[in-house]
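ok so for the tutorial part 2 we go from a plain amino acid sequence to predicted structure tokens. step 1 is just haveing the sequence, like this:
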Amino acid sequence: MDVRDRLEGMRREVEAELERALTGGGSRLFEALRYAVLGGGKRFRPLLLISAGETFGAERAALLPYACAVELIHNFSLVHDDLPSMDDDDIRRGKPSCHKAFGEGPALLAGDGLLALAFETIARAPQTPGHPERKDAVLREIAAAVGVRGMVEGQWLDISLRPGEANEGLFTELVRKKTGALIRASAAAGALVAGAPPEGLAAVEKYGEAVGLAFQLRDDLADAVPSDSPSGLDAVALFGRDGARARLERSVSEAIAALDDGRVASPELRHLARELRADARV
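step 2 — the prediction. this is what the tokens look like for a chain of 282 residues:
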């Protein structure tokens, strides 16, 4: 089976699990949750998690709860990022943002609900027989990525930067936390569920860190115009299109090199990294 077909199969299974997780009757709350999560998104983080886990021998059924959890967390962050007090975006995936469709207060609660549901999903995930420590390790990895040294701190930095303060160091730090932390944790979580050896886990973590930066560079390049945020913390605004592309190429190469150096034989992880480079050729 072609690598694209294998990844599409993973994506469909994640979509079905998300559909089940977000079934809560006809309440307006669950309508908002479903609106925020379903019907869009490439499920990049779940694909990283499943690909890494299967590379080291984990069964897909054992990986799916964690894959859904990281996607719920990702969508929680999007709902909150779009709020007027944060990035103030009215459109998400070609339709009105959650706060435009449901109101600011309901969107805030929907984001809270997605975050809580993510950790409920992890709590309900079965332990690996004989290896209860693996679930604990995954929980610590994902919680750290979401929290005050990860996504939350990254968002704090984003809204705290003053005009003219942006530079490459701040850009890299912000991306590593706001965007990259959950991407890195997704790849690492799959390896942890599988009980990957230390050298394999280290390689996947290094891969995830490089892919996290590449992901943001790809997004900035794909935007029609540079960001108009007050901080101007946008790769194209900072480096120009050629500079952003060069940094993207380097990050993808570093991700592939990490897999090669760690002898991690995963066509899926390689494809996911290379696709970021291909997507940015606009």
